[in-house]
């Protein structure tokens, strides 16, 4: 199976990745090879198999009580932000 | 000469005042800096902070205070968040990220007294098997600097192999602790899923990721694992079980231990020289009283394809957080929000990370979910059931960690599938959430070979015991490359 250039562009769009034109044929080839490779899974008979939901049998996600446990650290956390004003993250204008 | 000593030996030396923690830390960081241009094992070296911490450790030691690791040096894989210190995950995306908090593993080792010397190099976001995908350049194998150290914890493995540090944290999603440990001739331990907190570990594939450690000896790994393991309310997959005293069970006799030889691991892909080392190692276990028996896991050959659906799927979801808004790389002069997202991610991520994000996006997209993701999770269940059946017959499984010894830098970068197949023997344990170790068991053409031992869930104590007794009988683990010994 060879994915088309359009398919690669669509996947990149869904993944929110801007690709350079030179990257497209590279991913076209390698992603096609990967999907051929993982196609081997079709060999397995999984008719009555329940898909794995957790690597440890019998365990599921723990829940905790719905109480506030964190202190306000927004100033420390925002030190890594590219652009901040008045405690808010700045992005290009979204609504005209 | 302190650099050749194990943690256990260093701890004795510190307590007997043969040397101070400051002297030890200074000696190791001097070596680390001297070898950095050749090995590129580190991304950040934290000399100043380490010396301040070492001074405090010396005071504690003098006063008879301190924890089990007081004054002992460690390096953290640059995937663990470290408060106030650059935490890059080997990526351009995070090359300006100073973590606002410590990962639980980092905090636990710090409170046990360990001193961080720096952050080790790694494949970008832990996606790689050769440490060649790092934004900060490849790490070189100390046994032959033309070769890869393995990955993704290549910096941690190379640093321990070159005796820059006696212990380094690492993480394992598909073999990223065991494979570089094998290729660098050191001891690597990947614990049971949920045994070690993932809080503050930058996520790659959350149902597979597990933190662990790389050391010179299994005894040292037991010492570190006892401190880093345990329940953490901040990780919803952390398991609430008491942590055994791993060092206390290291010397338990192995008489009667039932070892399963995985038929699927001794396949045509296994280098005959590697196989010879593994067979010799198994003979050592027989002398120790263990019994060998062949077992088969018929679905194991599907572990690599299953992994390359599940891991990219989870990666595409986890890495969606890197949006150029709250932290990480942001593209210049975005036209609009979509342009900001797309160019920040397109520029910030390297080629392999983008490949995996796109693979994951595709297998989770409408119309393909059942055919790929659901199918892979079913196959994963079959593989886990195979392991369960095997552990009804034997106590542990043994086989090679890797099909071949270390390969040249650049040899496999053009073909992702060839690179992915490096992890053919390690991925099964991740898919089933099992603990596994790799220990040095010989050399082929001057390059180390790793023996892998896999056990049932929460059998870390038994694996470390088996590894330790092998290391009492052999000296493969004690060998260091001449240039660094």
Structure, described:
- The complex is a heterodimer of chains A (96) and B (485).
- Chain A is mainly α and 96 residues long.
- Chain A is built from three helices and two strands.
- A two-stranded antiparallel sheet of chain A has the order 1-2.
- In chain A, β1 (84-85) and β2 (88-89) form a beta hairpin.
- With 485 residues, chain B is an alpha/beta fold.
- Chain B contains 15 helices and eleven strands.
- Chain B has an eight-stranded mixed beta sheet, sandwiched between helices. In chain B, strands 1-3-2 form a three-stranded mixed beta sheet, with helices on both faces.
- The relative contact order of chain B is 0.14.
- At the A-B interface, α1 and α2 of A face α9, α10, α11, α12 and α13 of B.
How many H/I helical runs of chain B? 15
Mean model confidence by pLDDT of chain A: 92
General shape of chain B: globular
Beta strands of chain A, count: 2
* Range of strand content of chain B: 5-15%
Biggest beta-sheet profile of chain A: 2 strands, antiparallel
Helix content of chain B: 25-40%
Neighbour order of strands in the largest sheet of chain B: 4-6-5-10-11-9-7-8
| Structural class by secondary-structure content of chain B | alpha/beta
